[in-house]
Design a protein that fits this description.
This protein is of the alpha+beta class. It has helices at residues 2-8, 22-33, 52-61, 94-111, 124-130, 160-163, and strands spanning 44-49, 72-78, 115-116, 138-146. The chain has a single domain (2-147), classed as NADH Oxidase (3-Layer(aba) Sandwich). It is built from 6 helices and 4 strands. It binds flavin mononucleotide.
């Protein structure tokens, strides 16, 4: 059930040192690849980081101890120049496209029994200056992945009546 998956995914901020199986990573990234995007532009790239030197660079731009024990961090990048721009008002859709693909990532991870966490509160200018990024790509989010060493807490969400109108 999709609702069970939505409930199972939570922001995991503590990971065990168990490595992630390569086939699970491939499966997750295949789910990302299948994400929709405006005019099918697919203005994205995902760098799957497992090596300590680049994990350390990420830590420099997001200095939280908890992210240090994630065995993998996916750096999610937007190619804003090639994203669809709505003619009526010039709105660039790169952020929307990335959000959809990243949500595929975290839901697929949850389905595979892995913890994940969206991270956008990193020092983006520092990250762009220090991390080797492909030309023209902008960092949107960092997504640590790993086997959870914590437990989900209760989900606090607005009531249906507060978010839905008929
Ligand atoms: C766009 C976005 C950015 C986020 N950035 C961060 C972040 O920088 N650091 C962090 O610890 N959590 C971050 N989160 C996680 C949210 O705090 C979390 O999703 C929210 O509190 C709901 O909790 P849940 O994910 O456990 O259901 C982010 C989530 C989203 C969707």
């Amino acid at each position: 059930m999709f609702k069970e998956l939505c409930t199972a995914r939570y922001s995991c901020r503590n990971y065990t040192d168990r490595p992630i199986e390569e086939e699970k990573l491939r499966y997750i990234m295949e789910c990302v690849r299948l994400a929709p995007s405006a005019v099918n532009r697919q203005p994205w790239r995902f760098i799957v980081i497992k090596d300590q030197p680049r994990l350390d660079l990420i830590y420099n731009a997001y200095a939280r101890e908890w992210i240090r024990n994630a065995p993998v961090i996916v750096v999610c990048l937007a190619d804003r120049q090639n994203a669809w721009v709505r003619p009526s008002d010039g709105k660039n859709h790169a952020d929307i496209d990335l959000a959809i693909a990243i949500e595929h990532l975290v839901l697929a991870a949850a389905e595979q029994g892995l913890g994940s966490c969206w991270v956008c509160n990193f020092d983006a200018p520092l990250f762009s200056q220090t991390f080797p990024l492909p030309e023209g790509y902008e960092p949107i989010a960092l997504v640590p992945l790993g086997y959870a060493a914590d437990q989900p807490s209760e989900k606090h969400r607005k009531n249906m009546a507060d978010i839905m109108a008929e």
